[in-house]
Protein backbone atom coordinates (compact mmCIF):
# COMPACT_ATOMS: atom_id res chain seq x y z
CA UNK A 1 0.00 0.00 0.00
CA UNK A 2 1.78 3.17 -1.10
CA UNK A 3 -0.04 5.71 1.04
CA UNK A 4 1.68 5.03 4.34
CA UNK A 5 5.12 4.83 2.84
CA UNK A 6 4.71 7.97 0.77
CA UNK A 7 2.47 10.24 2.82
CA UNK A 8 3.86 13.39 1.15
CA UNK A 9 1.83 12.74 -1.97
CA UNK A 10 -1.30 13.14 0.15
CA UNK A 11 -0.55 16.32 1.92
CA UNK A 12 -2.59 19.49 1.76
CA UNK A 13 -5.40 18.10 -0.30
CA UNK A 14 -3.58 18.62 -3.54
CA UNK A 15 -2.18 22.05 -2.61
CA UNK A 16 1.60 22.08 -3.12
CA UNK A 17 3.41 21.81 0.22
CA UNK A 18 5.23 25.12 -0.31
CA UNK A 19 1.91 26.97 -0.06
CA UNK A 20 1.52 26.27 3.65
CA UNK A 21 4.39 28.63 4.42
CA UNK A 22 2.74 31.71 2.94
CA UNK A 23 0.90 33.93 5.41
CA UNK A 24 -2.01 34.49 3.06
CA UNK A 25 -2.55 30.74 2.90
CA UNK A 26 -3.95 28.38 5.49
CA UNK A 27 -5.90 29.58 8.52
CA UNK A 28 -4.63 26.68 10.63
CA UNK A 29 -1.01 25.73 10.17
CA UNK A 30 1.15 23.22 12.03
CA UNK A 31 4.74 22.31 11.40
CA UNK A 32 6.45 19.36 13.11
CA UNK A 33 3.99 19.68 15.97
CA UNK A 34 4.94 17.42 18.88
CA UNK A 35 2.89 16.96 22.07
CA UNK A 36 4.08 14.76 24.92
CA UNK A 37 2.23 13.91 28.07
CA UNK A 38 4.23 12.31 30.89
CA UNK A 39 6.98 11.16 28.50
CA UNK A 40 4.59 9.63 25.99
CA UNK A 41 4.44 11.15 22.55
CA UNK A 42 0.80 11.84 21.75
CA UNK A 43 1.31 13.93 18.60
CA UNK A 44 4.33 13.00 16.56
CA UNK A 45 5.67 15.73 14.22
CA UNK A 46 2.39 16.72 12.59
CA UNK A 47 2.57 19.10 9.64
CA UNK A 48 -0.58 20.33 7.97
CA UNK A 49 -2.42 23.35 6.72
CA UNK A 50 -6.16 24.05 6.60
CA UNK A 51 -7.53 26.62 4.19
CA UNK A 52 -10.11 29.28 5.03
CA UNK A 53 -13.77 28.39 4.58
CA UNK A 54 -13.26 24.63 4.57
CA UNK A 55 -14.84 21.88 6.63
CA UNK A 56 -12.05 19.49 7.54
CA UNK A 57 -12.80 16.14 9.17
CA UNK A 58 -10.35 14.69 11.68
CA UNK A 59 -10.70 10.94 11.71
CA UNK A 60 -8.99 8.09 13.44
CA UNK A 61 -9.43 5.34 16.01
CA UNK A 62 -10.08 6.15 19.69
CA UNK A 63 -6.94 7.26 21.50
CA UNK A 64 -5.06 8.26 18.34
CA UNK A 65 -4.62 11.86 19.52
CA UNK A 66 -7.58 13.64 17.91
CA UNK A 67 -8.72 15.38 21.09
CA UNK A 68 -5.14 16.31 22.00
CA UNK A 69 -4.69 17.91 18.58
CA UNK A 70 -7.91 19.91 18.97
CA UNK A 71 -6.95 20.98 22.51
CA UNK A 72 -3.57 22.08 21.20
CA UNK A 73 -5.24 24.24 18.55
CA UNK A 74 -7.40 26.05 21.11
CA UNK A 75 -4.34 26.60 23.30
CA UNK A 76 -5.13 24.50 26.36
CA UNK A 77 -2.50 21.84 25.66
CA UNK A 78 1.19 22.70 25.93
CA UNK A 79 3.31 21.70 22.95
CA UNK A 80 6.69 20.01 23.23
CA UNK A 81 8.02 20.93 19.81
CA UNK A 82 7.28 22.44 16.43
CA UNK A 83 4.87 25.25 15.70
CA UNK A 84 1.14 25.64 15.42
CA UNK A 85 -0.70 28.79 14.46
CA UNK A 86 -4.24 29.94 13.77
CA UNK A 87 -5.08 33.10 11.82
CA UNK A 88 -1.38 33.89 11.81
CA UNK A 89 -1.03 33.82 15.60
CA UNK A 90 0.48 31.03 17.73
CA UNK A 91 -2.16 28.73 19.24
CA UNK A 92 -3.26 29.97 22.65
CA UNK A 93 -2.48 33.63 21.86
CA UNK A 94 -4.82 35.85 23.92
CA UNK A 95 -6.12 37.54 20.76
CA UNK A 96 -7.35 34.16 19.51
CA UNK A 97 -9.51 33.37 22.53
CA UNK A 98 -12.55 35.24 21.22
CA UNK A 99 -11.99 34.20 17.58
CA UNK A 100 -11.72 30.42 17.99
CA UNK A 101 -14.87 28.55 19.02
CA UNK A 102 -14.35 25.25 20.80
CA UNK A 103 -16.77 22.49 21.71
CA UNK A 104 -15.46 19.58 23.79
CA UNK A 105 -16.72 16.02 23.57
CA UNK A 106 -18.58 16.43 26.84
CA UNK A 107 -20.85 19.47 26.72
CA UNK A 108 -18.82 21.50 29.31
CA UNK A 109 -21.66 23.82 30.25
CA UNK A 110 -23.21 24.62 33.63
CA UNK A 111 -25.85 21.96 34.13
CA UNK A 112 -27.21 23.86 37.13
CA UNK A 113 -28.00 26.94 35.01
CA UNK A 114 -30.71 27.48 32.41
CA UNK A 115 -29.88 27.61 28.71
CA UNK A 116 -30.24 31.40 28.69
CA UNK A 117 -28.07 31.82 31.78
CA UNK A 118 -25.34 29.67 30.21
CA UNK A 119 -25.38 31.66 26.95
CA UNK A 120 -25.50 34.99 28.79
CA UNK A 121 -22.44 34.13 30.90
CA UNK A 122 -20.31 32.64 28.12
CA UNK A 123 -21.40 35.41 25.74
CA UNK A 124 -20.31 38.07 28.22
CA UNK A 125 -16.95 36.32 28.61
CA UNK A 126 -16.63 36.40 24.80
CA UNK A 127 -17.12 40.16 24.86
CA UNK A 128 -20.77 40.37 23.79
CA UNK A 129 -22.93 42.93 25.57
CA UNK A 130 -26.53 44.10 25.55
CA UNK A 131 -28.36 43.75 22.23
CA UNK A 132 -25.49 41.93 20.52
CA UNK A 133 -25.48 39.36 23.32
CA UNK A 134 -29.25 38.87 23.15
CA UNK A 135 -29.08 38.63 19.35
CA UNK A 136 -26.25 36.08 19.39
CA UNK A 137 -28.08 33.97 21.99
CA UNK A 138 -31.33 34.04 20.00
CA UNK A 139 -29.51 33.15 16.78
CA UNK A 140 -27.63 30.14 18.24
CA UNK A 141 -30.77 28.89 20.02
CA UNK A 142 -32.63 28.95 16.71
CA UNK A 143 -29.70 27.49 14.70
CA UNK A 144 -29.39 24.54 17.05
CA UNK A 145 -33.10 23.84 17.38
CA UNK A 146 -33.21 24.63 21.08
CA UNK A 147 -36.16 27.03 20.86
CA UNK A 148 -38.57 26.63 23.78
CA UNK A 149 -35.90 25.36 26.17
CA UNK A 150 -34.47 28.79 27.08
CA UNK A 151 -35.68 28.88 30.68
CA UNK A 152 -34.99 25.27 31.55
CA UNK A 153 -32.03 24.13 33.65
CA UNK A 154 -29.72 22.33 31.21
CA UNK A 155 -29.23 19.43 33.64
CA UNK A 156 -32.77 18.34 32.74
CA UNK A 157 -31.97 18.23 28.98
CA UNK A 158 -31.59 15.03 26.98
CA UNK A 159 -28.08 14.03 25.93
CA UNK A 160 -28.62 15.34 22.43
CA UNK A 161 -30.02 18.65 23.67
CA UNK A 162 -27.12 19.09 26.07
CA UNK A 163 -24.60 18.37 23.29
CA UNK A 164 -26.23 21.15 21.28
CA UNK A 165 -25.91 23.56 24.22
CA UNK A 166 -22.17 22.87 24.14
CA UNK A 167 -22.17 23.65 20.42
CA UNK A 168 -24.25 26.77 20.95
CA UNK A 169 -21.59 28.15 23.29
CA UNK A 170 -18.90 27.42 20.66
CA UNK A 171 -20.91 29.28 18.00
CA UNK A 172 -21.99 32.15 20.23
CA UNK A 173 -19.17 34.57 19.51
CA UNK A 174 -19.33 34.14 15.68
CA UNK A 175 -15.78 32.75 15.66
CA UNK A 176 -13.53 32.68 12.58
CA UNK A 177 -12.36 29.18 13.42
CA UNK A 178 -14.49 26.41 14.90
CA UNK A 179 -12.84 23.43 16.58
CA UNK A 180 -15.44 20.76 17.30
CA UNK A 181 -14.69 17.49 19.07
CA UNK A 182 -17.22 14.84 17.99
CA UNK A 183 -20.10 17.33 17.89
CA UNK A 184 -22.72 14.93 16.58
CA UNK A 185 -22.35 12.06 19.08
CA UNK A 186 -25.74 11.06 20.42
CA UNK A 187 -27.74 13.05 17.84
CA UNK A 188 -30.38 11.52 15.61
CA UNK A 189 -29.84 11.43 11.82
CA UNK A 190 -32.09 14.42 11.13
CA UNK A 191 -30.25 16.63 13.62
CA UNK A 192 -26.92 15.42 12.30
CA UNK A 193 -27.90 16.32 8.75
CA UNK A 194 -29.11 19.75 9.90
CA UNK A 195 -25.88 20.40 11.79
CA UNK A 196 -23.71 19.43 8.82
CA UNK A 197 -25.75 21.75 6.62
CA UNK A 198 -25.10 24.49 9.15
CA UNK A 199 -21.36 23.71 9.21
CA UNK A 200 -21.26 24.19 5.43
CA UNK A 201 -23.33 27.38 5.60
CA UNK A 202 -20.78 28.72 8.09
CA UNK A 203 -17.89 27.59 5.87
CA UNK A 204 -19.50 29.42 2.93
CA UNK A 205 -19.31 32.63 4.97
CA UNK A 206 -15.57 32.10 5.51
CA UNK A 207 -15.53 30.20 8.81
CA UNK A 208 -12.88 27.46 8.98
CA UNK A 209 -14.06 24.27 10.70
CA UNK A 210 -12.12 21.32 12.03
CA UNK A 211 -14.47 18.55 13.14
CA UNK A 212 -13.42 15.24 14.66
CA UNK A 213 -15.63 12.25 14.08
CA UNK A 214 -15.88 8.50 14.33
CA UNK A 215 -18.72 8.27 11.87
CA UNK A 216 -17.73 7.63 8.29
CA UNK A 217 -20.87 8.93 6.63
CA UNK A 218 -19.88 12.28 8.14
CA UNK A 219 -16.44 12.03 6.57
CA UNK A 220 -18.13 12.12 3.19
CA UNK A 221 -19.63 15.52 4.09
CA UNK A 222 -16.19 17.11 4.64
CA UNK A 223 -14.23 19.13 2.09
CA UNK A 224 -11.02 17.61 3.37
CA UNK A 225 -10.02 14.72 5.61
CA UNK A 226 -7.18 14.13 8.03
CA UNK A 227 -6.72 10.48 8.94
CA UNK A 228 -4.82 9.98 12.17
CA UNK A 229 -3.36 6.98 13.91
CA UNK A 230 -0.97 6.82 16.88
CA UNK A 231 -0.36 10.56 16.79
CA UNK A 232 0.57 10.68 13.10
CA UNK A 233 -1.33 11.49 9.96
CA UNK A 234 -1.85 8.54 7.66
CA UNK A 235 -3.51 10.55 4.97
CA UNK A 236 -4.62 14.05 4.17
CA UNK A 237 -6.91 14.37 1.20
CA UNK A 238 -10.43 14.94 -0.05
CA UNK A 239 -12.91 12.09 0.46
CA UNK A 240 -12.72 11.30 -3.26
CA UNK A 241 -8.93 11.08 -3.16
CA UNK A 242 -9.05 8.80 -0.12
CA UNK A 243 -11.40 6.45 -1.96
CA UNK A 244 -9.27 6.50 -5.08
CA UNK A 245 -5.99 5.89 -3.28
CA UNK A 246 -7.14 3.17 -0.90
CA UNK A 247 -9.29 1.41 -3.48
CA UNK A 248 -11.98 1.07 -0.82
CA UNK A 249 -15.56 0.96 -2.03
CA UNK A 250 -16.69 3.49 0.61
CA UNK A 251 -15.08 5.64 3.30
CA UNK A 252 -15.83 3.07 6.00
CA UNK A 253 -13.73 0.53 4.14
CA UNK A 254 -11.10 3.15 3.34
CA UNK A 255 -10.90 3.99 7.04
CA UNK A 256 -10.47 0.33 7.95
CA UNK A 257 -7.79 -0.07 5.31
CA UNK A 258 -5.96 2.97 6.65
CA UNK A 259 -6.41 2.13 10.32
CA UNK A 260 -5.37 -1.51 10.11
CA UNK A 261 -2.96 -1.31 7.22
CA UNK A 262 0.25 -1.65 9.20
CA UNK A 263 0.68 -4.14 12.01
CA UNK A 264 -1.23 -2.64 14.91
CA UNK A 265 0.96 -0.90 17.42
CA UNK A 266 -0.18 -0.28 20.99
CA UNK A 267 -2.39 2.79 21.11
CA UNK A 268 -0.75 5.80 22.67
CA UNK A 269 -2.71 7.60 25.30
CA UNK A 270 -6.39 8.14 25.83
CA UNK A 271 -8.57 10.54 23.95
CA UNK A 272 -7.27 13.41 26.03
CA UNK B 1 -8.59 42.07 35.00
CA UNK B 2 -12.05 43.19 33.92
CA UNK B 3 -14.76 44.41 36.27
CA UNK B 4 -17.49 43.34 33.84
CA UNK B 5 -16.20 39.78 33.66
CA UNK B 6 -15.64 39.60 37.43
CA UNK B 7 -19.22 40.71 38.07
CA UNK B 8 -20.56 38.40 35.35
CA UNK B 9 -18.78 35.51 37.06
CA UNK B 10 -20.16 36.51 40.47
CA UNK B 11 -23.64 36.72 38.96
CA UNK B 12 -23.22 33.30 37.35
CA UNK B 13 -22.10 31.70 40.65
CA UNK B 14 -25.06 33.29 42.45
CA UNK B 15 -27.42 32.02 39.72
CA UNK B 16 -26.04 28.52 40.24
CA UNK B 17 -26.71 28.85 43.96
CA UNK B 18 -30.22 30.16 43.29
CA UNK B 19 -30.98 26.94 41.39
CA UNK B 20 -29.77 24.95 44.39
CA UNK B 21 -31.78 26.35 47.34
CA UNK B 22 -30.95 23.43 49.61
CA UNK B 23 -27.22 24.21 49.42
CA UNK B 24 -27.89 27.88 50.18
CA UNK B 25 -30.15 26.94 53.10
CA UNK B 26 -27.42 24.72 54.52
CA UNK B 27 -24.69 27.32 54.03
CA UNK B 28 -26.78 29.85 55.93
CA UNK B 29 -28.20 27.52 58.57
CA UNK B 30 -25.27 25.30 59.52
CA UNK B 31 -23.17 27.93 61.38
CA UNK B 32 -26.28 29.09 63.25
CA UNK B 33 -27.38 25.58 64.20
CA UNK B 34 -23.86 24.77 65.42
CA UNK B 35 -23.82 27.95 67.52
CA UNK B 36 -27.20 27.05 69.02
CA UNK B 37 -25.76 23.61 69.80
CA UNK B 38 -22.72 25.28 71.43
CA UNK B 39 -25.01 27.33 73.66
CA UNK B 40 -26.74 24.21 75.01
CA UNK B 41 -23.52 22.18 75.27
CA UNK B 42 -21.86 24.88 77.39
CA UNK B 43 -25.14 25.74 79.15
CA UNK B 44 -23.43 28.55 81.05
CA UNK B 45 -23.87 32.24 80.12
CA UNK B 46 -20.34 33.25 81.18
CA UNK B 47 -18.68 30.42 79.24
CA UNK B 48 -20.87 31.21 76.21
CA UNK B 49 -19.84 34.88 76.21
CA UNK B 50 -16.21 33.77 76.33
CA UNK B 51 -16.30 31.07 73.64
CA UNK B 52 -19.09 32.09 71.24
CA UNK B 53 -17.18 34.82 69.30
CA UNK B 54 -14.34 32.44 68.39
CA UNK B 55 -16.76 29.77 67.20
CA UNK B 56 -18.77 32.34 65.23
CA UNK B 57 -15.48 33.00 63.43
CA UNK B 58 -14.75 29.33 62.78
CA UNK B 59 -18.09 27.88 61.64
CA UNK B 60 -18.56 30.09 58.51
CA UNK B 61 -14.84 29.61 57.70
CA UNK B 62 -15.30 25.82 57.61
CA UNK B 63 -18.53 25.90 55.57
CA UNK B 64 -17.07 28.31 53.00
CA UNK B 65 -13.84 26.32 52.71
CA UNK B 66 -15.61 23.15 51.72
CA UNK B 67 -18.18 24.78 49.41
CA UNK B 68 -15.46 26.70 47.55
CA UNK B 69 -13.18 23.66 47.24
CA UNK B 70 -15.96 21.48 45.83
CA UNK B 71 -17.34 24.16 43.50
CA UNK B 72 -14.01 24.74 41.78
CA UNK B 73 -13.23 21.02 41.68
CA UNK B 74 -16.58 20.54 39.94
CA UNK B 75 -15.72 23.30 37.48
CA UNK B 76 -12.55 21.38 36.58
CA UNK B 77 -14.23 17.98 36.36
CA UNK B 78 -17.07 19.21 34.10
CA UNK B 79 -14.75 20.86 31.62
CA UNK B 80 -16.21 24.34 32.11
CA UNK B 81 -12.87 25.53 33.50
CA UNK B 82 -11.06 24.36 30.37
CA UNK B 83 -13.67 26.08 28.22
CA UNK B 84 -13.25 29.33 30.17
CA UNK B 85 -9.46 29.09 29.93
CA UNK B 86 -9.81 28.85 26.13
CA UNK B 87 -11.92 32.05 26.25
CA UNK B 88 -10.92 35.64 27.01
CA UNK B 89 -11.46 35.35 30.78
CA UNK B 90 -8.69 36.36 33.20
CA UNK B 91 -7.85 33.94 35.98
CA UNK B 92 -8.30 36.67 38.58
CA UNK B 93 -11.69 37.58 37.02
CA UNK B 94 -12.79 34.05 37.78
CA UNK B 95 -11.41 33.95 41.33
CA UNK B 96 -12.58 37.45 42.22
CA UNK B 97 -16.02 36.58 40.86
CA UNK B 98 -16.14 33.60 43.18
CA UNK B 99 -14.92 35.76 46.07
CA UNK B 100 -17.69 38.33 45.50
CA UNK B 101 -20.45 35.73 45.17
CA UNK B 102 -19.40 33.71 48.20
CA UNK B 103 -18.65 36.92 50.10
CA UNK B 104 -22.30 37.96 49.65
CA UNK B 105 -23.46 34.56 50.90
CA UNK B 106 -21.08 34.94 53.85
CA UNK B 107 -22.73 38.28 54.73
CA UNK B 108 -26.12 36.59 54.96
CA UNK B 109 -24.64 33.63 56.82
CA UNK B 110 -22.89 35.81 59.41
CA UNK B 111 -25.82 38.22 59.84
CA UNK B 112 -28.09 35.32 60.75
CA UNK B 113 -25.67 33.71 63.20
CA UNK B 114 -24.79 37.04 64.87
CA UNK B 115 -28.42 38.16 65.22
CA UNK B 116 -29.55 34.84 66.68
CA UNK B 117 -26.54 34.69 69.00
CA UNK B 118 -27.12 38.17 70.40
CA UNK B 119 -30.90 37.80 70.76
CA UNK B 120 -32.14 34.28 71.32
CA UNK B 121 -28.89 32.78 72.66
CA UNK B 122 -28.21 35.81 74.86
CA UNK B 123 -24.53 36.28 74.00
CA UNK B 124 -23.40 39.63 75.44
CA UNK B 125 -20.59 41.61 73.87
CA UNK B 126 -18.63 44.38 75.59
CA UNK B 127 -19.06 46.60 72.52
CA UNK B 128 -20.98 46.80 69.25
CA UNK B 129 -21.86 43.71 67.20
CA UNK B 130 -20.60 45.31 63.97
CA UNK B 131 -16.87 44.53 64.40
CA UNK B 132 -17.71 40.92 65.19
CA UNK B 133 -19.90 40.60 62.10
CA UNK B 134 -17.30 42.25 59.86
CA UNK B 135 -14.47 40.02 61.07
CA UNK B 136 -16.67 36.91 60.84
CA UNK B 137 -17.38 37.75 57.17
CA UNK B 138 -13.64 38.23 56.58
CA UNK B 139 -13.04 34.83 58.21
CA UNK B 140 -15.61 33.24 55.90
CA UNK B 141 -13.96 34.85 52.85
CA UNK B 142 -10.59 33.59 54.12
CA UNK B 143 -12.03 30.06 54.31
CA UNK B 144 -13.36 30.43 50.77
CA UNK B 145 -10.01 31.68 49.41
CA UNK B 146 -8.12 28.80 51.02
CA UNK B 147 -10.72 26.38 49.66
CA UNK B 148 -10.27 27.76 46.13
CA UNK B 149 -6.51 27.42 46.46
CA UNK B 150 -6.66 23.91 47.95
CA UNK B 151 -8.94 22.64 45.19
CA UNK B 152 -6.08 23.16 42.71
CA UNK B 153 -4.37 20.19 44.37
CA UNK B 154 -7.42 17.92 44.30
CA UNK B 155 -7.72 15.53 41.36
CA UNK B 156 -11.21 14.38 42.39
CA UNK B 157 -14.13 15.45 44.55
CA UNK B 158 -13.11 12.72 47.02
CA UNK B 159 -9.77 14.42 47.50
CA UNK B 160 -11.36 17.87 47.73
CA UNK B 161 -13.68 16.69 50.51
CA UNK B 162 -10.75 15.20 52.41
CA UNK B 163 -8.99 18.55 52.46
CA UNK B 164 -11.57 19.60 55.06
CA UNK B 165 -10.25 17.24 57.78
CA UNK B 166 -6.70 17.40 56.41
CA UNK B 167 -6.30 21.18 56.29
CA UNK B 168 -9.03 22.62 58.52
CA UNK B 169 -9.13 20.33 61.57
CA UNK B 170 -5.39 20.74 62.40
CA UNK B 171 -5.91 24.51 62.26
CA UNK B 172 -8.96 24.18 64.50
CA UNK B 173 -6.87 22.28 67.07
CA UNK B 174 -4.02 24.78 66.91
CA UNK B 175 -5.92 28.09 66.67
CA UNK B 176 -6.57 28.51 70.38
CA UNK B 177 -10.11 27.15 70.49
CA UNK B 178 -9.21 24.00 72.42
CA UNK B 179 -6.13 25.14 74.34
CA UNK B 180 -4.88 28.69 74.65
CA UNK B 181 -2.04 29.26 72.18
CA UNK B 182 0.15 30.65 74.98
CA UNK B 183 0.11 27.26 76.74
CA UNK B 184 1.28 25.26 73.72
CA UNK B 185 4.80 23.84 73.39
CA UNK B 186 7.14 26.17 71.44
CA UNK B 187 6.89 24.10 68.28
CA UNK B 188 3.08 23.97 68.31
CA UNK B 189 2.91 27.63 69.22
CA UNK B 190 5.15 28.44 66.24
CA UNK B 191 2.99 26.24 64.00
CA UNK B 192 -0.09 28.06 65.29
CA UNK B 193 1.56 31.39 64.45
CA UNK B 194 1.88 30.54 60.75
CA UNK B 195 -1.67 29.21 60.27
CA UNK B 196 -4.38 31.61 59.09
CA UNK B 197 -7.23 30.35 61.29
CA UNK B 198 -5.24 31.34 64.42
CA UNK B 199 -5.57 35.01 63.45
CA UNK B 200 -9.23 34.61 62.54
CA UNK B 201 -9.97 33.21 66.00
CA UNK B 202 -7.61 35.61 67.76
CA UNK B 203 -9.41 38.62 66.29
CA UNK B 204 -12.82 37.24 67.32
CA UNK B 205 -11.58 36.51 70.87
CA UNK B 206 -10.21 40.03 71.20
CA UNK B 207 -13.50 41.52 69.95
CA UNK B 208 -15.35 39.41 72.50
CA UNK B 209 -13.09 40.69 75.29
CA UNK B 210 -12.82 44.39 74.58
CA UNK B 211 -15.33 47.18 73.96
CA UNK B 212 -12.93 49.15 71.78
CA UNK B 213 -11.30 48.29 68.47
CA UNK B 214 -7.63 47.77 69.38
CA UNK B 215 -4.48 47.83 67.29
CA UNK B 216 -4.07 44.11 68.02
CA UNK B 217 -7.41 43.49 66.27
CA UNK B 218 -6.24 45.60 63.32
CA UNK B 219 -3.06 43.53 63.13
CA UNK B 220 -5.10 40.29 63.12
CA UNK B 221 -7.38 41.66 60.39
CA UNK B 222 -4.34 42.66 58.31
CA UNK B 223 -2.99 39.12 58.58
CA UNK B 224 -6.40 37.66 57.61
CA UNK B 225 -6.54 39.97 54.57
CA UNK B 226 -2.96 39.06 53.61
CA UNK B 227 -3.69 35.32 53.80
CA UNK B 228 -6.88 35.83 51.73
CA UNK B 229 -5.03 37.79 49.04
CA UNK B 230 -2.17 35.26 49.01
CA UNK B 231 -4.61 32.35 48.67
CA UNK B 232 -6.43 34.05 45.76
CA UNK B 233 -3.18 34.90 43.97
CA UNK B 234 -1.92 31.37 44.67
CA UNK B 235 -5.20 30.08 43.26
CA UNK B 236 -4.66 32.15 40.10
CA UNK B 237 -1.10 30.87 39.76
CA UNK B 238 -2.13 27.22 40.14
CA UNK B 239 -4.96 27.72 37.62
CA UNK B 240 -3.29 26.74 34.37
CA UNK B 241 -4.50 27.68 30.93
CA UNK B 242 -2.51 24.80 29.49
CA UNK B 243 -2.08 21.22 30.64
CA UNK B 244 1.41 19.81 30.34
Structure, described:
- The complex is a heterodimer of chains A (272) and B (244).
- Chain A is built from nine helices and ten strands.
- Chain A is α/β, with parallel strands linked by helices.
- In chain A, α4 (130-143) crosses α5 (159-172).
- Residues 1-23 and 263-272 of chain A have low confidence and may be disordered.
- Chain A has helices at residues 2-5, 66-73, 115-125, 130-143, 159-172, 189-204, 216-219, 239-246, 251-260, and strands spanning 28-37, 40-50, 55-59, 81-86, 89-90, 100-103, 177-181, 208-213, 224-229, 232-237.
- Chain B is an all-alpha fold.
- Chain B has one domain (3-238).
- In chain B, α2 runs antiparallel to α3 (45-77), α3 runs parallel beside α6 (130-151) and α9 (196-209) packs antiparallel against α10.
- Chain B starts with a helix and ends in a 6-residue tail after the last helix.
- The mean pLDDT of chain B is 93.
- Chain A binds chain B through residues 37, 71, 74-78, 92, 94, 97-98, 100, 102, 104, 106-114, 117, 121-122, 124-127, 129, 153, 169, and chain B through 4-5, 8-9, 11-12, 15-16, 19-20, 78-80, 82-89, 241-244.
Secondary-structure topology with pairs:
The complex is a heterodimer of chains A (272) and B (244).
Chain A: H1 2-5, E1 28-37, E2 40-50, E3 55-59, H2 66-73, E4 81-86, E5 89-90, E6 100-103, H3 115-125, H4 130-143, H5 159-172, E7 177-181, H6 189-204, E8 208-213, H7 216-219, E9 224-229, E10 232-237, H8 239-246, H9 251-260
Parallel strand pairs in A: 3-8, 3-9, 6-7, 7-8
Antiparallel strand pairs in A: 1-2, 1-4, 4-5, 9-10
Chain B: H1 3-18, H2 21-42, H3 45-77, H4 80-85, H5 91-118, H6 130-151, H7 157-174, H8 186-193, H9 196-209, H10 215-238
Annotation keywords:
heterodimer, A: alpha/beta, Rossmann fold, four-stranded antiparallel beta sheet, 33% helix, 22% strand, disordered N terminus, B: 244 residues, 10 helices, 78% helix
So, CATH architecture of the largest domain in chain A? 3-Layer(aba) Sandwich
Reading the helices and strands of chain A in chain order gives HEEEHEEEHHHEHEHEEHH
Fraction in helix of chain B: over 70%
Q: Largest inter-chain interface?
A: A-B, 33 and 25 residues
Rg of chain A from C-alpha positions?
A: 18 Å
Strand content of chain A: 15-25%
Based on helices, strands and strand pairing, what is the structural class of chain B?
mainly alpha
What is the molecular shape of chain B? Answer: globular
Overall 3D form of chain A: globular
Text of the CATH class of the largest domain in chain A: Alpha Beta
Derived from helix and strand composition plus strand pairing, the structural class of chain A reads alpha/beta
Task: State which percent range the strand residues of chain B make up.
Answer: under 5%
Q: What is the string of SSEs of chain B from the N terminus onward?
A: HHHHHHHHHH
Distance between the termini of chain B: 25 Å
Sheet with most strands of chain A:
6 strands, mixed
Q: How many individual β-strands of chain A?
A: 10
Low-pLDDT residue intervals, each spanning 5 or more residues of chain B:
none
Instruction: Kindly report the oligomeric state of this protein.
Output: heterodimer
Write out the CATH superfamily name of the largest domain in chain A: P-loop containing nucleotide triphosphate hydrolases
Amino acid sequence: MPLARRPEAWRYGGVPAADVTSTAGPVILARDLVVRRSERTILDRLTFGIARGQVTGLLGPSGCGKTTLLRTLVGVQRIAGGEVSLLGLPAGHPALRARVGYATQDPAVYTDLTLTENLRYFGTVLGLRGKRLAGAAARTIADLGLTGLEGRVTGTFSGGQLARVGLAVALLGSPDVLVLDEPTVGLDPVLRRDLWQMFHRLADTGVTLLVSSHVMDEAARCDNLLFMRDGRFLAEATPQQVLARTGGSDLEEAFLLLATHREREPLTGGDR
Amino acid sequence: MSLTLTLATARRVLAQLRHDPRTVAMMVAVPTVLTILLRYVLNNPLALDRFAPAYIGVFPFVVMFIVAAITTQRERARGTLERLMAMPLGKLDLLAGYAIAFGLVACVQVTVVVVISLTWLGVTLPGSAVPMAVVAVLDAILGMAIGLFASAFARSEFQAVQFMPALVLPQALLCGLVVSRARMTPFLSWLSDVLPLSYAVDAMQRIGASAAWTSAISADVAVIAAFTAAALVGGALTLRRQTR
